[in-house]
Amino acid sequence: MEYFLCVLGMVMVLEGLPYFGFPDKMKQFMKTVLEQDDATLRIMGSILMVSGLFIIFLARKSLE
To answer: What's the pTM?
Structure first.
């Protein structure tokens, strides 16, 4: 559980960096995202999830 909370905290830090560093660019990005259709957003989301799982898989394999 402690490891999970550390990872969750790191994700929150990484997610917050663009909003802190580039708020104007993030507003423009959000407008662009709002203009995308649902299918495109789902494809992008699924690609990101699969990529994340693959990175986790590689990281765990390298620690063995």
So the answer is: 0.73
Evaluate whether 18 touches 12 at the Cβ level (below 8 Å).
no
Single-letter code of the amino acid located at 31: K
DSSP letters spanning 13-38: HHHHHHHHH-HHHHHHHHHHHHHS-H
- Structure confidence by residue, pLDDT tens digits, 31-52: 999 999 999 999 999 999 999 9
Candidates 34, 29, 36; CA nearest to 15 is: 29
DSSP state of 39: H
What's phi and psi for 35, nearest 5 deg?
-80, -15
Domain spans in the chain, listed from the N-terminal domain onward: 2-63
